[in-house]
Amino acid sequence: MNYLKIYIQLVKHSKRREQIDGYYEKHHVFPVSIFGYNVLTVKLTAREHYIAHALLEKIYTKRYGTHDIRTKKMVRAFFMMNNAHGNGQQRYTNSR
What we know:
- By secondary structure, the protein is mostly helical.
- It has helices spanning 3-16, 32-35, 46-64, 69-83; strands at 25-28, 41-44.
- The protein has a two-stranded antiparallel ribbon.
- The two termini are 20 Å apart.
């Protein structure tokens, strides 16, 4: 499966969308932990944001292997998304 293609489609879809009714999250298209600070962000729904991070984890694992530092950063980001319960946050922990 081509996870990068799906990720790009998700980002393009969110850029074409005029607005999101209700809750949304800003997502850096190029991960800050790898590429440094960048201003290219898109607005994603909570479900889309979860899916984007799941796809990034799969993209980096497939491309660089499990022991590469970039892969470890993506795995950690996805792990934190699933397990962070602090600062009054209630996380959406699956894609449904």
